[in-house]
# Entry
Amino acid sequence: MKDINDYRDGIKRIVISEEEIRSAVKKAGAMISEKYKGEPILLVSVLKGAFIFLADLARAVDIPCEIDFMEAKSYFTDTKSSGSVAVTMDLKHDVSKYHVIIVEDIIDTGRTLKEIAKIIKSHSPLSLSIVTLLDKPSRRVVEIEADYSLFTIPDLFVIGYGLDFDEYYRNLPYIAEFDESRLK
Ligand code: IMP
Ligand code: MG
# Structure
């Protein structure tokens, strides 16, 4: 996508504004700070989609916390997840010493997160919980729920605030619907 007009035309409409994100992230940070006061917590970000959410959420948490990253790839041919998941970068921390909070960008089919949760659980964290920015419950094919979800959205392909289409649009400060007619 080298053409700037093509790029702009891909942004169909804003679904969640910067202000809505900011206030929801603040609430999520306050919830974490309250729930885990006095406990060792590790925020685990699933790259790359959650990197912006993690950066903002971490700054909304006002208790001591540590941060680690994991990368998983789920393979798409189009905007539908195929369900095949590979962990391409693992955690550096010994999770058995922490209450682990997985910070996800979006739960779609749920396959990626289910796999990641299984791997982390096998290393016996003090506890494991999931915070997701977005949830598309209508698309779920495996059983997995977030403990805290900031926004529930319908079955749309969204971009921005870390989420990409073909690696573009992660830097949009809001969440927008991607114009899927661009795929054809
Ligand atoms: P899963 O289908 O729940 O396994 O989702 C896997 C990954 O697909 C998510 O973590 C996102 O990175 C990506 N994904 C799912 N839905 C969307 C979307 O609407 N926009 C951008 N990425 C998405
Ligand atoms: Mg993701």
Observations:
- The CA atoms of residues 25 and 57 lie 6 Å apart.
- The chain has a mean pLDDT of 92.
